[in-house]
Design a protein that fits this description.
Blueprint: H1 14-24, H2 26-29, H3 37-45, E1 55-58, H4 64-71, E2 79-83, H5 86-95, E3 100-103, H6 109-113, E4 123-126, H7 135-148, E5 154-159, E6 173-177, E7 189-195
Parallel strand pairs: 1-2, 1-4, 2-3, 4-5
Antiparallel strand pairs: 5-7, 6-7
Helix pairs in contact: 3-4
Bound molecules: S-adenosylmethionine.
The site of S-adenosylmethionine has 24 residues, from helix 2, helix 4 and strand 2.
């Protein structure tokens, strides 16, 4: 179900926006194409709308995962998007006027969220290109995230890589993986890390 008032209002050329940002900053944009609808829905399906609290999306880019979360029936007022790229932020605000878009660094999640999302969070859904960042930075991000999430709430991350982009064994969380999603370009897998 699409939440009323959050129907995409324009047919912005998502691919063009994406490629423009990729040429400007290939390391932070990471992927060569926007996430497809099958991958986006697979990520959104892991979010439990009944779990209370804000839902934070990291690196939403052009917004395919945001659209899938809204289609799933998530109230747009619960969604907080953290995006580094100024142009993506502007485009997300136009496309999803009821969603809170925060321009900032997801790796400094505590400071970036500030008063925008009061923990405990119900889910964190990440499209960050984690493999482009140092293991130390990734580790710090998952540790902060586990502190902000409600027990059993998921940190959801897709990757094109063969392995988990975050350590699989941890005292902080449990890990599970989807099957490879072949109907995405490139094929991807969704990893879920659940706070213990
Ligand atoms: C793989 S792309 C997003 C893909 C998105 N699912 C789409 O299809 O448009 C990664 C996104 O993470 C954002 N990003 C990278 N580093 C970031 C950071 N430190 N904080 C917030 N966003 C970041 C990029 O600007 C980009 O929008």
């Amino acid at each position: 179900m699409q939440h009323p008032g959050n129907k995409p209002v324009s047919q912005e050329p998502a691919l063009l926006n994406f490629l423009t940002s990729w040429f400007r900053n290939p390391k932070t944009v990471g992927a060569i194409a926007p996430s497809g609808p099958v991958l986006s829905r697979a990520m959104a399906a892991i979010v439990d709308p009944a779990l209370e609290g804000p839902i934070v999306e990291l690196g939403p880019g052009t917004g395919p995962v945001t659209a899938a979360l809204l289609e799933r029936g998530i109230d747009p007022k619960r969604l907080v998007l953290v995006e580094y790229d100024k142009d993506f932020c502007a485009s997300l605000r136009r496309r999803f006027p009821e969603v809170n878009v925060v321009e900032g660094d997801a790796f400094a999640l505590d400071a970036t969220l500030g008063a925008h999302a009061k923990p405990p969070l119900a889910a964190i859904v990440s499209s960050l290109p984690l493999l482009n960042f140092a293991q130390e930075q990734r580790q710090k991000l998952i540790e902060i995230s586990m502190r902000l999430l409600r027990p059993r709430a998921p940190f959801i991350q897709f990757t094109y890589g063969a392995n988990s982009p975050l350590p699989v064994a941890s005292p902080l969380y449990e890990t599970s993986a989807s099957k490879r999603i072949w109907r995405n370009l490139p094929p991807a897998r969704v990893w879920t890390y659940r706070a213990k």
